[in-house]
Amino acid sequence: MKKKLILIFTDIFMVAVSYFAAFILRLEFEGTLDYIHFTKTSLPIAIIVTIPVFIRMGMYKAVWRYASIDSFVMILKAVTTSTFISVVIIFFIQTQRMPRSVFIIYWMLLLIGMCGVRFSTRFYRYYFALTGKGGKGGRRVLIYGAGSAGQMVAKEMRYDNALGYQPICFVDDDPIKVGNRIHNLPIYSGSSSLSELIEQNDIEDVLIAIPSTSGEKVRSIVEGCRVSQIKFKTLPSLSDIVDGKVGVDQIRNIVIDDLLKRSPKDLDMKRIKSFVADKSIMITGAAGSIGSELSRQVARCRPSVELLVDNNEYGLYMINSELNGHNNDVEHHAILENVTKSVSIEDHLRRINSDIIFHSAAYKHVSLVETNPCEAIINNILGTVKVARLADKYNVKTFVMISSDKAVRPTNVMGATKRICELYIQNFNTISDTDFVAVRFGNVLDSSGSVVPKFRRQIKNGGPVTITHPDATRYFMLIPEAVQLVMQAASLGKGGEIFILDMGKPVRILDMARDMIMMMGHNHEGVKIEYTGLGAGEKLHEELMVDEAERDTKYESIAIAGVTKVDWEEFESDIDKLVNFANVGNVNAAIRMLKKLVPEYDPRNDVYKTVLDTNQETP
Fold this sequence. Notes:
Blueprint: H1 2-33, H2 36-56, H3 69-93, H4 101-130, E1 139-144, H5 148-159, E2 165-172, E3 181-182, E4 185-189, H6 194-200, E5 205-208, H7 215-224, E6 231-234, E7 252-253, H8 256-260, H9 269-276, E8 280-284, H10 289-300, E9 305-310, H11 313-326, E10 331-336, H12 343-351, E11 356-359, H13 366-371, H14 373-393, E12 398-404, H15 413-428, E13 435-441, E14 443-444, H16 451-460, E15 465-467, E16 473-474, E17 476-477, H17 479-492, E18 498-501, E19 507-508, H18 509-519, E20 529-531, E21 550-552, E22 558-561, H19 568-583, H20 587-597, H21 606-613
Parallel strand pairs: 1-2, 1-5, 2-4, 5-6, 8-9, 8-11, 9-10, 11-12, 12-13, 13-18, 14-17, 15-20
Antiparallel strand pairs: 3-4, 6-7, 16-19, 18-22, 21-22
Helix pairs in contact: 1-2, 1-4, 2-3, 3-4, 9-17, 10-17, 14-15, 14-19, 15-20, 19-20
């Protein structure tokens, strides 16, 4: 309030000075004396009009330390409006004739004076912050990306010493910008050697200020200056910036997600929203990594009802609380139940006509499933069968099963169970009015129990980082990307399809480990890497397609696998037998039945290989 009062009195002084100066410039000093009575009576009018107009137009609410072109436009409008109103009133009240050019000069002088007062704060900050007079310090930053995001951040860094950053230069791939300067900072070419630029300018941090860039581009930037052993930082993606504005407070360290992120080129959000909006949706496994993100994205598309199913009490409570806190116009039901029982699930389906079921409930960890095959068979296969039959019984329009790349030529129990589920819904579709589809993709990054949290924990503890094999590769996708494509694929389903998501290029696990070690501020000498050998059931390289026909959709990121037909009666009977073997804990018989149901199943587990090699007939 004190600052506003000072500014108001300053403006009153500027109006008086500009008014008298206009008369002197137009009539000289002696001529001005002839109009002394006129000025005495008209000046108060100018002051009384100007201050309320300035208040009305926000002249005392602006933060002038950040004065810009918009600020100048505000001053121009305020000065012009106040001058016009003052002139009209003065000529209406006063009878003495005088040169009208006096008021043109007054307008110009007042505009200059008001701009001078308002912009003086910024000039002062510029002098001290940008010329080094104020003792500028902080970490020396190279900003990769001279677009709007990079410019906004550089501007904020330069004008606020307390932030602890000192922008030194830009690097950009746009040849039109290269060689120019923004905020007096030079712009270098992205094709330049980053390592040399870093060394020449004593750079301490590299900020990647391209919110829309791909993971491949981030990786190339990191690779370009890996030897420099500096810190890499970035800004959030455009989808995460709610108001479209970026600032220094949003800068964060680069994580492995940034190197692997891919924005699907043909993501059709309009189609996804139309598929989900105003529908009743059930999501099984809603507390898991995929299920919880699926629950969030479904809620954003405004379904009428969302049924969340999981047997993880705490996880279900958390996702249900989160959704209720942000989506109050969507009706949520939390169903605490195992999909193999399905009593409460059926009760809800009986009472609420559901349109779509996303079935993501499953045991997914290869090593745990390999040592607990019977539990996985019951949960993965029986759970899918029960929910699928309920979808058919209660006329659910679409049933979407989340599958895995491990279902392709499976070498482990988890993959074999997923392949059986694919075959079941693909063939059940032919005798049901419900459209049954599956969506197959690889690993999702940073999911619970995945390799990324394990590496992070090992690096934090100083190592060693354990890797199965130096040549092992896996397909990776960020959870939000995977879920968006799952929903889009589901919207394409006519029944019987197995949709395959484009996972990009497989990632070498060794490269991922090295990237994470570097990004967490260590080097390979400080944190060792050890090889443990492939675990039971693990492949060296994963696959996404079996030897079957495939066809493309109109979306580059989604393909469709061919249909594999089975003798339905025999297949159903064999599944019942398999579940019975699992229920009584007969592992050997269960493994043999897995092989019968999935002939391409080739276990990389010596124990199960021995079981199959005995050629013992399955009961």
